[in-house]
């Protein structure tokens, strides 16, 4: 995306460059021209599978205490993969955990990143199955997993508004995750969600004369921003933030081993029982 010359001076050059970099990364990862339009029935099925997969990303995220950026990236990867590839119910856990593993390798410190072996202990498929699914997902993206999430924009937007997110960071991520549980990132742009979160949590004293430029630079439609802000308000009103909320824990065993369950595009995995 190219920024209009007469708009560039409204924000600092460093901010404009960061926005441009994120826009290019986003375009690379989610190129909507390559995603077919889903019919009503296909979209309903997509959202049903996505809801289940979302839960199985949340499980290892909570269990291994990974960062919010890992969780956000895993959801981005999941959303695009499910849109591109029809996933059966018996494969949903391994797809979800593979998306989580890819994201964890991107954002978690090496010494804290859960391994495929760690993750496979909690399910009925093997480490080899998980690694094969990980490779399969990456191949569908052309081995490009440089995803952009709402968190990439939140800190930048907060600085532009002169807003500190230190005291509200947990509330921001909690509300964002509740929103992502209901909406696919294929349809909800990360910049829209980030700016909506800033609007939701900012005080009246936090204003930015550059908001119109942000809408232009990030290609945000005012109607999309309004709808997302309303959605966040509804979610916050119906499910207020609670730090003591009980979280699901591993293990949750499901038999969906792709190497033993029907026809799959993954090669059959023969386990060496003597190993």
TrEMBL record:
User: What family does the database annotate?
Assistant: Belongs to the cyclin family.
Show the Pfam families listed in the entry: Cyclin_C (PF02984), Cyclin_N (PF00134)
Kindly give the SMART domains that the UniProt entry links to this protein: CYCLIN (SM00385)
Question: Per the UniProt entry, what species is this protein from, by scientific name?
Answer: Biomphalaria glabrata (Bloodfluke planorb)
The reply on keyword Ligase is no
InterPro entries tied to this protein? Cyclin, Cyclin-like_dom, Cyclin-like_sf, Cyclin_C-dom, Cyclin_N
Name listed for the protein in its UniProt record: Cyclin-G2-like
**Alphabetically ordered keywords of this record:** Cyclin
| Domain of life (superkingdom) | Eukaryota
UniProt-listed Gene3D superfamilies? Cyclin-like
Indicate the segments forming the Cyclin-like domain, all copies: 55-139
């Amino acid at each position: 995306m190219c920024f209009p010359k007469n708009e560039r001076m409204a924000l600092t050059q460093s901010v404009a460059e960061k926005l441009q970099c994120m826009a290019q990364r986003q375009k690379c990862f989610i190129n909507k021209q390559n995603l077919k339009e889903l019919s009503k029935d296909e979209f309903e099925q997509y959202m049903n599978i996505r809801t289940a997969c979302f839960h199985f990303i949340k499980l290892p995220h909570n269990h291994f205490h990974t960062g919010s950026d890992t969780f956000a990236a895993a959801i981005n990867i999941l959303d695009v993969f499910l849109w591109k590839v029809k996933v059966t119910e018996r494969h949903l856990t391994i797809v979800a955990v593979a998306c989580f593993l890819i994201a964890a390798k991107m954002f978690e410190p090496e010494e804290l990143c859960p391994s495929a072996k760690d993750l496979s202990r909690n399910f009925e498929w093997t480490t080899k199955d998980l690694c094969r699914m990980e490779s399969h997902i990456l191949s569908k993206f052309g081995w490009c997993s440089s995803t952009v999430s709402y968190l990439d924009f939140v800190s930048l937007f907060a600085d532009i508004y002169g807003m500190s997110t230190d005291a509200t960071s947990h509330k921001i991520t909690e509300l964002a995750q509740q929103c992502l549980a209901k909406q696919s990132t294929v349809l909800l742009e990360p910049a829209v969600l980030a700016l909506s979160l800033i609007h939701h949590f900012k005080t009246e004293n936090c204003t930015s004369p550059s908001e119109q430029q942000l809408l232009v630079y990030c290609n945000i439609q005012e109607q999309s921003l309004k709808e997302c802000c309303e959605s966040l308000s509804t979610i916050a009103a119906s499910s207020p933030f609670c730090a003591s909320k009980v979280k699901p824990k591993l293990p949750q065993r499901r038999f969906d081993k792709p190497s033993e369950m029907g026809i799959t595009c993954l090669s059959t995995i023969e386990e060496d029982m003597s190993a």
